């Protein structure tokens, strides 16, 4: 639970439910003001922090924002750009000028084809949801091997933990390289045993990420880590 | 819908043929998240009606001619399964399903914050697995629940509920016989928190007083169904806490 709030301020709300009076409060995500009241617009947990009332949704789609690090899959290739599936409402567009390679016009397929996976960053999102991606940047690259897993976008912070603490534990326990994209796509690379273990951990986050039992389930799973005895 | 002469729809003790009081609705049960592949889903059982709704999206609207630059479009497809009634229903879109899809989409557009998703489409599929009158209401309730389950932002839920008139008496939640042989039917989509009406249709004739009474029954039933909806949403995530 975040600092600055208490149990009374944390409750499950459904769309249309009044969270409280809007006077003196700021409206955060998942809520709107209506007739001097704050109304939840999503199913989720109502929170108040620093006078800002918001709803942490239990289920949510990925809304791309500029600067997001994402794991994207090539959906379509043209002569000079790639259309990438970013697990959102719209495809992202990766022009050849923002690819990490020198690409000749018409040769985009030689670098990435349909189904290939890449680590990219959201360069720009306009008001009409046009998403431009870039692969120019440190660490941004095509991901040639490993497994691609998915978790709900609102559970990403759960799998990462406070200041990435849980993610670091998962990496060392599984002995795998793990990249958590902010679009809910997770790339895992390592030996088969480690990938299976990481996959199971992500399944736990998927099923129980919103539950109070999540930490206990995850700790129990970490105790069965393939690499635990080596530490 | 003018009534059918000597067909008795009310018993001598004042109760209806299935034993309900005139202002009593059929038992309602709701379950959410029943289809793992969908972004959101729900099943509503109301009497012998079974309605399943699935929501996909928001996604890029295709074909592009249906895109709206300032908002999402809600694409609703209501369908009755061929086995949903004793007379086999011919599969595919027909005039009735087209009409119900349209009014349901318009009702949902009034609660979904469509302006948050320009150029997008939210696909809502409503499948009636078993029908016993009032399927558009059960389908609307299921669609609202599926949208909430999918995390689509909405300013309120919608409850679909109907009243009607049989033997010159206003009754709540018509069953099949009452729907077929009654004098009027008044299905309404109600926003339970604000009390607004998202859609209203009327088949048959009601006097102003009968209309007011039917709406009173509808609002009462909407409150009861809303409680069941909230419980169903909470039940799926019970024990949840970040």
Walk me through the structure.
The complex is a heterodimer of chains A (231) and B (242). Chain A is an alpha+beta fold. In chain A, 20% of the residues lie in helices and 32% in strands. In chain A, strands 8-9-10-12-11 form a five-stranded mixed beta barrel. A four-stranded mixed sheet of chain A has the order 1-6-7-3, with no helix packed on it. In chain A, strands 2-5-4 form a three-stranded antiparallel sheet, with no helix packed on it. Chain B is α+β, with helices and mostly antiparallel strands. Chain B has four helices and ten strands. Chain B has helices at residues 95-109, 135-149, 176-181, 208-236; strands at 28-32, 40-46, 49-60, 73-80, 120-130, 159-166, 169-172, 184-190, 197-200, 203-204. In chain B, the strands form two sheets. Chain B has a five-stranded mixed sheet with strand order 1-2-3-5-4. In chain B, strands 6, 7, 8, 9 and 10 form a five-stranded antiparallel sheet that branches. In chain B, helix 1 (95-109) links the parallel strand 4 and strand 5 (120-130). In chain B, helix 1 crosses helix 2. Chains A and B meet through loops of A and strand 3 and helix 4 of B.
**According to CATH, what is the topology of chain B?**
Ribosomal Protein S5, domain 2
How many H/I helical runs of chain A? Answer: 5
Q: Let me know the average pLDDT of chain B.
A: 93
* Major β-sheet annotation of chain B: 5 strands, mixed
Low-confidence stretches of chain A: 1-8
Largest sheet of chain A: 5 strands, mixed, barrel
**How many strands in all of chain B?**
10
Mean pLDDT figure of chain A: 87
What is the radius of gyration of chain A computed over CA atoms, rounded to a whole number of angstroms? 20 Å
**What series of H and E elements makes up the topology of chain A?**
EEEEEEEEEEHEEEEHHEEHH
The level-1 CATH class of chain B = Alpha Beta
Beta-strand residue fraction of chain A: 25-35%
Throw out a few tags for this protein.
heterodimer, A: 231 residues, alpha+beta, five-stranded mixed beta barrel, 5 helices, 16 strands, 20% helix, B: 242 residues, Ribosomal Protein S5, domain 2, five-stranded antiparallel β-sheet
């Amino acid at each position: 639970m975040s600092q600055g709030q208490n149990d009374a301020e944390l409750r499950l709300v459904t769309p249309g439910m009044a969270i409280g009076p809007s006077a003196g409060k700021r409206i955060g995500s998942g809520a709107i003001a209506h007739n001097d009241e704050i109304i939840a617009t999503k199913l989720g947990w109502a929170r108040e922090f620093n006078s800002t009332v918001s709803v942490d949704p239990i289920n949510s789609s990925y809304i791309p924002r500029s600067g997001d690090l994402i794991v994207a899959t090539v959906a379509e290739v043209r002569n000079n750009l790639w259309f990438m599936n970013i697990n959102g409402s719209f495809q992202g567009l990766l022009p050849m000028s923002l690819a990490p390679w020198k690409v000749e016009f018409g040769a985009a397929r030689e670098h990435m084809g349909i189904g290939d996976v890449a680590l990219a960053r959201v360069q720009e999102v306009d008001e009409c949801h046009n998403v431009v991606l870039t692969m120019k940047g440190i660490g941004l690259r095509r991901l040639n091997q490993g497994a691609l897993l998915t978790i709900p976008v609102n559970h990403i912070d759960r799998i990462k933990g406070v200041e990435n603490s849980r993610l670091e534990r998962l990496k060392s326990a599984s002995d795998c390289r793990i990249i958590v994209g902010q679009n809910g796509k997770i790339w895992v690379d390592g030996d088969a045993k480690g990938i299976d273990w990481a996959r199971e951990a992500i399944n736990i986050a998927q099923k129980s990420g919103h539950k109070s039992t999540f930490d206990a389930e995850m700790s129990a799973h970490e105790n069965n880590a393939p690499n635990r005895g080596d530490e | 819908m003018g009534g059918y002469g000597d067909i008795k729809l009310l018993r001598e003790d004042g109760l209806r043929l299935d034993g309900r009081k005139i202002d009593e609705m059929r038992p309602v049960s709701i379950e959410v998240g029943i289809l793992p592949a969908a972004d959101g889903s729900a099943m509503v059982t109301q009497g012998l009606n079974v309605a399943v709704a699935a929501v996909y999206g928001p996604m890029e609207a295709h074909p592009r001619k249906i895109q709206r630059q300032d908002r999402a479009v809600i694409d609703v497809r209501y369908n009755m399964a061929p086995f949903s009634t004793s007379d086999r229903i011919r599969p595919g879109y027909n005039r009735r399903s087209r009409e119900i899809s349209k009014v349901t989409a318009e009702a949902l557009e009034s609660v979904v914050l469509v302006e948050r998703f320009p150029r997008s489409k939210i696909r809502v599929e409503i499948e009636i697995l078993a029908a016993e009158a009032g399927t558009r209401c059960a389908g609307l309730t299921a669609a609202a629940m599926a949208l909430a389950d999918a995390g689509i932002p909405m300013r309120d839920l919608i409850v679909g509920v109907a009243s009607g008139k049989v033997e010159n008496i206003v009754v709540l939640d018509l069953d099949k016989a009452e729907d077929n042989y009654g004098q009027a039917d008044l299905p309404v989509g109600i926003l339970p928190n604000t009390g607004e009406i998202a859609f209203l249709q009327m088949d048959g004739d009601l006097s102003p007083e009968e209309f007011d009474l039917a709406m009173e029954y509808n609002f009462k039933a909407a409150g009861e169904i809303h409680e069941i909806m909230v419980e169903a949403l909470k039940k799926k995530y019970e024990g949840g806490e970040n």
